[in-house]
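re the bet — no i am not wrong, look at it urself. input seq straight from the record:
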Amino acid sequence: MNILWASTLFVVLAEMGDKTQLLGMAFATRFKARTVLAGVFAATVVNHFLAVAFGNYLTTVIPLNYVQILASLSFVFFGLWTIRGDKLEGEDKKDYFTPFWTVTIAFFIAEMGDKTQLASIALAAKYNSLWWVLIGTTLGMMISNIIGIVIGVVFGKSIPEKTVKLLSAAIFILFGYLGLFEYILDTYMRIATISVVTTIVIGYIVFLTRKTKQEHKGKYKLNNPYKE
């Protein structure tokens, strides 16, 4: 059961503000909520089954300890990805036959290579449990999309994106560090790996902070009526 709830929690956190959650919210403005959720469920089951099966397969060809170290590193990567965020690129504008198939196909395509699919691979590799991880990641996708639809459509508000992103990213990175402490047995290798990872995390956050400040300055200059 711990695997189920851990998988559910990780995917809920990964999905908050993610492209596929935004896609579900966008479709909910065009189609009935139950149709959107049915399409999300169908696409998720197929997509995540492929991901979890692949993650489970990795444990048969790579020593389990190495797989778990890679999974821990990937959690740090997912945390940084969460901070960066995603945007829709017209996926919600395409139509594939009926509303159900439109949602299902669009969601399946959007989920390919997405953070939650990769997280499903990492979770399956970490826990070496196909069915519990599949159930947990599917449940997490449904919960996060229900939250997105309810908040975005029913209440007409957006999810507090910045706060959710930072909280989700912090949890991902924390679990990544805990995994590195647990699975890297050599003390010197552990210190070296964590030092490198910490440098990358801090460097990436500083880069994003500077980039955001520059973008805000650029917008202010363009919209400033007193510029002249």
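see?? Residues 55 and 121 are 4 Å apart (CA to CA). told u. also Residues 2-183 form one domain. so pay up
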